[in-house]
Amino acid sequence: MTKPRKPTIRDVAKVAGVSTATVSKFMNAQQSFSEPVEAKIREAIEQLGYQQNYMARAVVTGKTGAIGLGVLDICNPHYTNVVKGANRVALEQNYSLLVVDLDENQKQIQQRLQTLTMRVDGLLVSGRLSDEVIDWLAELRIPVVFIGHPFRTGVISVGMDVRLTIDILANYLIGQQFKRIAYVGYAGANWNAVRIAELQAIFSEHDVEFIEYSVEAPTVESAERIASKVLLSNNRADAIIACNDQVAIGLMGQARQFGVRIPQDIAIAGIDNNPISKHVNPSLTTIDTRGQELGEMAIHKVLDLIDGKDVIQREDLDPELVIRESTKVISS
């Protein structure tokens, strides 16, 4: 028994009453046509069950119709927001978004990205990578846009000012009259040293004692492992800035286990404004890093680069302070 023949672009053109060139330009988003013509083509595609051969399209056009996105940890809701924003624009522009989880594994990041770059027309990737990987990415044949600013010139990136982000949170806690503030950072991030230097400068101006800790990874699990040191110390801070919401949430969970009350005994704030942050108990004060908007901005840039357009090399979104219950001052 012979298999039924798959419909071709010629079949679509015949049913729609247009040329194959018209169907091809419509399918590849190379030209717009009148609404009646486009409606006829869509109806013919649906009637025939036609599916485009993307491999053949790539051979003819030199484009895959896909954008790659490398995220450091797909379990981190911040990156979920980035994916959501980027994917929304990709679909609007008739592109597919191929996402690779880099799994916070610096040793395998270049290998995973190398496989991805062979299948896409452009790449979005976190700026929190090693200098070696960033240098390699900067020399690729395809456009690359970083989400988060690498400390390197000559690359295209979107993100937020690291100093401004930490300034907003530090000054808010100072305004709440906290006098001993800890920062739980992540040494593997290129922004970590900048944040620490900024906090030291701000706190020294306001006579605030600064305590520094570091997690092995910016995850809930790593925060849980360091929680006893942070929360049960004889020299415990009265407020904590966590390097991201995941770390803050990990500390909050352990605080409950230790009988440490938030915010009565210690206040905790994060950075990212992940969707879960408003649902934990108490709700988490944080900085909104606007992940969906970053994803949208980044993919618009890479699409412009694919089309040969000039783009602004570095663009920032403004961070926004989101005040919730975890830093509320409660009178004794």
TrEMBL record:
What keywords are assigned to this protein? DNA-binding, Transcription, Transcription regulation
SMART domains on file: HTH_LACI (SM00354)
User: Which residues belong to any copy of the HTH lacI-type domain?
Assistant: 7-61
Pfam families associated with the record: LacI (PF00356), Peripla_BP_3 (PF13377)
Q: What is the annotated signal peptide range for this record?
A: none
Entry-linked PROSITE patterns: HTH_LACI_1 (PS00356), HTH_LACI_2 (PS50932)
Q: What GO molecular functions are on record for this protein?
A: DNA-binding transcription factor activity; transcription cis-regulatory region binding
Matching entries from PANTHER family are given as: HTH-TYPE TRANSCRIPTIONAL REGULATOR GALS (PTHR30146:SF109), LACI-RELATED TRANSCRIPTIONAL REPRESSOR (PTHR30146)
Q: What is the name listed in the Swiss-Prot or TrEMBL entry for this protein?
A: Ribose operon repressor
Native organism is Vibrio quintilis
Q: Which gene encodes it?
A: rbsR_1
